[in-house]
Amino acid sequence: MPGQVSDMTNDRRRPSQALLRISVRCGVAAALAIGPAVPAPAQSQVQAAQAVQQGQTMDFSGTWANRLHEDWVERAPGPHIGDYLGLPINDEARAVADTYQVSMQNMPERQCILYTSQYIVMGPQNLRIEQELDPVSGGVRAFQLSGTVDRPPHTIWMDGRAHPSPNSPHSAGGFTTGEWQGTMLVARTTHLKTGLVWRNGVPHSDQATMSEYYVRHGNVLTVTMILEDPVYWEEPFIRNASFELDPATRVLPEPCEPQVEIPRAAGEVPHYLPGANPYLREVADLYKLPFEAVRGGAATTYPEYAKRLRGTYAPPDRCPVYCCGGTGQATQNDNKASCRVDPPPAPARATPAR
Amino acid sequence: MRRLLHVLLAVAAVTATAAAQGRGGAAPPATPPTPPPTARASAPIDLTGYWVSVVTEDWRWRMVTPPKGDYASIPINAEARKVGDAWDPAKDEAAGNACKVYGAPGLMRLPGRLHITWQDDTTLKVETDAGIQTRLLHFGDWKPAGPATRQGDTVAVWEMRPARGAEPPPRFGSLKTTTTRLTPGYLRRNGLPYSDKTTLTEHWDLLRHQSGDQWLVVTTIVEDPTYLTRTWITSLNFKKEPDGAKWDPTPCLAK
Amino acid sequence: MMRRNLRLASASPLLLLGAMLAVGTASGIAQSPTGGAPRDALEVIEVRPNFHVIAGAGAHVAVQTGPDGAIVVDSGAGDRTADVVAEIRRITREPIRYLINTSHNVQHVGGNDALSAAGRSVIPTGGLNEIGAAGGRAPILAEEHVQAAMTAPTGETAKFPVGAWPTVTFSAELGETQKDLFFNREAILVTYQPAAHSDGDSVVFFRRSDVIVAGEVFDMTRFPVVDLASGGSLQGIIDALNRIIVVAVAPVPLTWQDGGTVIVPARGPLAHEADVVDYRDMLTIVRDRVQDLLKKGLSLEQVLTADPVKGYRRRYGADSGPWTTRMFIEAAYRSLGGK
After folding, report:
1. Is residue B48 part of a domain?
2. Between vectors from CA A197 to CA A193 and to CA A200, what angle results, nearest 5°?
3. Is A35 on the interface with C (CB under 8 A)?
4. What confidence tens digit (pLDDT) does each residue in B84-123 have?
5. Does B131 touch chain A (CB under 8 A)?
6. Which residues form the domain of B209?
7. Which of A233, A243, B204, C223 is the right S-S partner for A221, CB 3.0 to 4.6 Å?
């Protein structure tokens, strides 16, 4: 039949029922909220409103495993120092990132500072999502995205509340409100603290705002983020992460207690003076890339830039490092020049018959 | 008892008479059923237009040719590695296989532009300027058949909540496509292979940003029992452009 | 008048909805003296149930309340003091008992006279003693250098009216580096920070409320003002921030909880320890860059050209206004020994 449509709703209105029940089918949450006996016209209006709400919602509840099938190097072992490939950052951001020493992270006062909520798509962590339902309408009042190692909890308020004023404190999780566009959850976050987008020091400021789009197709959840930051980013930065529903995945918060790892003078801040960072050309040298490309910038993300490189760029003969990361062919931290060949499993010994 | 039987018989007779009148009486003529809307008419989202890839992910593996042996992020098996390690772009070029990375699973990851139009009411056409390729997405009762091709055979379906009663057609939904019957090709420019047993599933979602920008996000799921240990899941971003002024057809490049 | 609950983002949804509904009255929007267009309303942020910050009257004004009365830290620029007093009256019916100044910067002391007059000394009969002010007004507490900067010897014209002068001081030169109070069942520590924004800075720590009012050493909207003429220095500001970091407590070990010590900056969003760490790190890096350039013998103009604030200019700098990026770099240069 032309225009075949797959029905994603779970429309089981029963006007005579006086039972509140929540059910899930094919990934769609449907709430049956029927109040006490009321005259038929008013009751059908309530049900119509609830049905519209029901049909526009998607159930994102569950534990979602981050598969790291893109940017495994940057998300798992971490980006090389000076690697700003594909990031539409400006000169200010480059200056901050060039100054950055990873050693800053072991300053006791920085050890327990979390990444901000943009790290949901930038980082390697898994995700657990729970929904808070309004007990009367059955609609989703908030989504709670759990915090985990290095990442804060992230609440998406669906009840139409206003964002706080600019003078209100910021947090690592930010303040987020959401709305439905069909079965897509669209969220907007303000009040983020200053944070790291990449672990090599690429920053976003506390003026950044973030739009998120949550889309579920079966057991795959795609989260798209658009980060806007007038301080450090040339244009909106779009990024996604895809997660797979996996009840066996662990998503646990991790307590943090700062310790002195490297003795320093009080108030000492490790950093590179301008021009003194010796590692900025590492990626360009490893992969024979033009240094200009490694410095990032909006222009380097468009096809026109690929065309500029065509004909002039020749990669190294072999992959130099992290060649099999995330493939299952090597450990996560494998940095050998070539992938290790796993020996076949030893055959089971036959047990002699008694 | 006899009186009850007479009543029942009378009722049955009246009913039969009424039914007979209905069958042979002045019933209104049957109206032909309204044909269901076409895929184009029922589209919940408008994917037509020009879209540019914005490569902020996997830059090193998409904007340039990665080095031989660079397989990071893809769940490959030993056989895939063996084939990838034997990649020789000069041989591909000499054998007329310069377009091996431009098959559907690899094509969408290349930097370039899409031009999406309706070829007819049940077929969406996706053209790429990278490699000058065309994909046809077939709605309706399309059954993949015929020989395998570089772009394979794609079945498309809209996923959306149907309109209820007098509600206007929904404005939200997404496109799901399933592509099979692919000739072998490359997932990456450095010769990482996919086989002819590959199934490519894509979910095409339209994101509307508050700035007015529109984004097409394509979640791609590649299944290949020959070369992958499990499904490979990625997502690609395309930004809508006002027109085709930057359309730049470029032939296939083997490297 | 706009009220904002600090805990908007962390309380339960029902409480938050209730808080949102509990909007204050529509007053606080005052006509200017010339009868022109209404000015922006002051913003009142509840930090704790007994601690509020009033924004929009110059530098932030902090108010601790309780049965003993209101303790106010700084008084704003002076042109909105009536509105500030009105907001305090909405927060508490108790009188203003003490005004504490973090420096003599006009953005912090401009409303001293009117606020003190609106208050009531803890000594009902008034009198000229240490914990009172003549006429029963609320006393004004500050480090002695603040008093020196605001007053003038007999026969000379002071920059501020008599009623604005601190009436209770402590002297760092005499070894008094901290003044302690206990009000509303809370220890209040007023700690001197030498040669910071000026030579008379104090940072005020409300121990039970877990709030630090930082004054001009910490400004979320711009590079800190280094008042060289009043004995300020970049290193002194960094030392003050380091001290705040030591005193402040982050939400550890349960890092997923919002919370920890709240630091009230001179301007801009209320902060936590992590924000002070970012600001301190930024200033330390700038200091190190300027020192490196000084070691190489660069002149001021050459240092300006080298742009030692690169990476932070867009966030904290300004090309015009009362405190520009150039002014900050020059002050940093000179305070680090540049000629």
Report:
1. no
2. 120
3. no
4. 999 999 999 999 999 999 999 999 999 999 999 999 999 9
5. no
6. 59-160+171-241
7. A243
Partner chains of B (3+ C-beta pairs under 8 Å): A
pLDDT, position B7: 55
Based on the fold, state whether residues A185 and A37 are members of the same structural domain. Answer: no
- List, in order, residues 6 or more apart from C229 with CB less than 8 Å away: none
Domain count across chain B: 1
Phi, psi of C48 (to 5 degrees): -135, 170
Q: Mean pLDDT in each 10-residue stretch from start to end of chain C (339 residues)?
A: 46 43 35 47 96 98 98 97 97 96 98 95 60 74 96 88 94 94 98 97 98 98 97 98 97 91 98 98 98 98 98 98 98 96
* Residue C299: CB atoms within 10 Å: 13
CATH architecture of C2-216: 4-Layer Sandwich (3.60)
Task: Determine, for residues A206 and C2 on separate chains, whether the beta-carbon distance falls below 8 Å.
Answer: no
Q: Which of 195-234 (A) contact C at CB < 8 A?
A: 205-207, 230-232
**Could you give the ipTM of this predicted complex?**
0.86
Task: Check B52 against A303: CB less than 8 A apart.
Answer: yes
pTM of the predicted model, to two decimals?
0.86
Structural domains in chain A (count): 2
Give pLDDT tens digits for A252-289: 889 999 999 999 998 899 999 999 999 999 999 999 99
User: Looking at the complex, does the CB of residue B115 fall below 8 Å from at least one CB of chain A?
Assistant: no
The alpha carbon of residue A207 is apart from the nearest alpha carbon of chain C, in Å, by: 9
Scanning B198-227 for CB atoms below 8 A from A yields 203, 205, 207-211, 213, 215, 217, 219, 221
CA–CA gap between residue C161 and residue B85 (Å, rounded) = 84
- Whether residue C274 and residue A113 make contact (CB cut-off 8 A), yes or no, is yes
Length of chain A: 354
Which structure tokens are listed for A68?
């790291």
